């Protein structure tokens, strides 16, 4: 049984930074592709960033150049470094895991709130 636990959210001013972490429990982390999604109030969940088991990485264009995803296979974590935050980045951020290269994600964390406001 896979369990994902996010941490690191909070309140930050525009232009500031936050680092989110997601700890993976239950199975072999190196066999999973990991991603971050977010959901703002009244909006659908949207993709943010992806880090495959082979360390292939890509981002949504809205965060490209500001956010950095990374994984630590020794610690079973995937992180999201968020710089130059904007009010439109305000959302609940979820990490997700899937064992397949394509398709739906099998496992989701409970989410962590990020609020960007002056």
Description of the structure:
By secondary structure, the chain is an all-beta fold. It is built from no helices and 11 strands. The chain has strands at residues 3-7, 10-12, 18-25, 33-39, 46-51, 57-59, 67-72, 77-82, 91-98, 107-108, 112-116. Strands 2, 4, 5, 6, 9, 10 and 11 form a 7-stranded mixed β-sheet that branches. A 4-stranded antiparallel β-sheet has the order 1-3-8-7, with no helix packed on it. A hairpin with an 8-residue loop joins β9 and β10. The model has no long low-confidence stretch (mean pLDDT 96).
How would you classify the helix and strand content by structural class? mainly beta
Show unreliable segments: none
DSSP strand count: 11
% residues in beta strands: over 45%
Number of helices: 0
**What pattern of helices and strands is seen along the backbone?**
EEEEEEEEEEE
- What fraction, in percent, of the residue positions are helical? under 10%
Largest sheet: 7 strands, mixed
The end-to-end span amounts to 40 Å
Rg (CA only): 13 Å
Shape: globular
The pLDDT mean sits at 96
List keywords for this structure.
118 residues, 7-stranded mixed beta sheet, single chain, 4-stranded antiparallel beta sheet, 50% strand, mainly beta
């Amino acid at each position: 049984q896979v369990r994902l636990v996010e941490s690191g959210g909070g309140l930050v001013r525009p232009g500031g930074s936050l680092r989110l972490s997601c700890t993976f429990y239950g199975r072999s982390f190196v066999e999973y592709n990991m991603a971050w999604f977010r959901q703002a109030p009244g909006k659908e969940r949207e993709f943010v960033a992806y880090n495959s088991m082979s360390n292939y990485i890509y981002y949504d264009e809205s965060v490209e150049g500001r956010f950095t995803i990374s994984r630590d296979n020794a610690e079973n974590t995937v992180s999201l470094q968020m710089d130059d935050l904007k009010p439109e980045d305000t959302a609940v951020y979820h990490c997700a895991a899937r064992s397949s290269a394509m398709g739906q994600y099998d496992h989701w964390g409970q989410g962590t709130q990020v609020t960007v406001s002056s």
